[in-house]
Amino acid sequence: MTYDLTVIIPVYNMENLLSNCLDSIVEQNKLDECSLRVICVNDGSTDNSQKIIEEYSDRFSFIEILNKKNGGVSSARNAGLDMVSDSEYVTFIDPDDSIYPNYIQNFILNKGSDVIYFDFDLVDSEGKILKQLNVNPFYSKLESEEVNLRYFLLTKHASWTRIYRSEFLSKFRFPLGKIYEDIALMPYITSLCSSVNYIQIPIYKYTVNTPGSIMNSSKSNIFDIYDSLTHLFSLFGNHFEEYKDELQYLAIEHLCVGHTYRLLNYPEATKQDFKDIVIFMEKYFGKHWDKNKYVKRGVQKVNINSSLSYVVPVFLKFLRYGGFSVWPVIKKVKGS
């Protein structure tokens, strides 16, 4: 059987929100017009997640369960990708999120390109909309596919934020044992695409402030961002220079800004941690690593969901000339 779309859901101890996620799928408009396969990868859950998936699988033939030992979200997503066959497109949904009733309908209308992007809403655990995100206000049908794809290469890189032709993910997997697994892979997959469709309305609901969120982390694994960026750069290989501006922007957003933000919640952070950021940036982007054309165009004002987005150029100057001394300033901005 050939599927139009395969959805992979990595599940670990999500009994409280999982039913809401699965309900949003089975209640889709135009579901009968889409050959859909949903693979729920139970990553060794110790709560009732497996039971919930089994109940839905019994009721709906397009929902499947794969049980595996706990290995983390990358391992779960990779296990799902290993099961993808004869599917035109593939995407991911996180078990604490949900999709709007018109998700499948809009997918059907926008089939044909290598990748499909869409806007999404930020919601709380009760489903209340906190903010609507226009993921790419720089998109224009008057621009070439290459220009539009380069801007999408900069957008939020969670695996659920786009729908790829399955062939683009067939040879690639998420790095294991690290957080920031999406930034390590997703931008590169987008660079392989030649065409894009953009659904300019929110069709996905992203639940914010879920316990264990990276942005709220005080654990040492926040330093995985270095490995993830290095992994991403290595994937580009000989094409690094061709995409240097885009990769530099991603490093600025996720390392210079995002990592610094998280260091503020890390009790063991040192002055050297700030210096290491500058050392990394100089290694890959030279002495003028803080100057980037996308920052000048204000892309960060869309991508960074914080007041920091408005002061990034100034903030980078502080970081470059002794970032450890800017802690008090960042703390004030961080709280707003």
Give a structural overview.
GO terms for molecular function: glycosyltransferase activity. The chain has 336 residues and is α/β, with parallel strands linked by helices. It has helices at 18-26, 49-59, 73-83, 103-110, 145-152, 186-192, 224-236, 244-263, 271-285, 293-296, 300-303, 312-320, 327-334, and strands spanning 3-11, 36-43, 63-68, 87-92, 98-99, 115-123, 129-133, 162-165, 196-207. It has 13 helices and 9 strands. Strands 1, 2, 3, 4, 5, 6, 7, 8 and 9 form a 9-stranded mixed beta sheet that branches. Helix 7 (224-236) runs antiparallel to helix 8 and helix 8 packs antiparallel against helix 9. The N and C termini lie far apart (52 Å).
Radius of gyration, in angstroms, nearest whole number: 20 Å
Tally of contiguous helical segments:
13
CATH topology group of the largest domain: Spore Coat Polysaccharide Biosynthesis Protein SpsA, Chain A
What is the H/E order?
EHEHEHEEHEEHEHEHHHHHHH
The outline comes out as globular
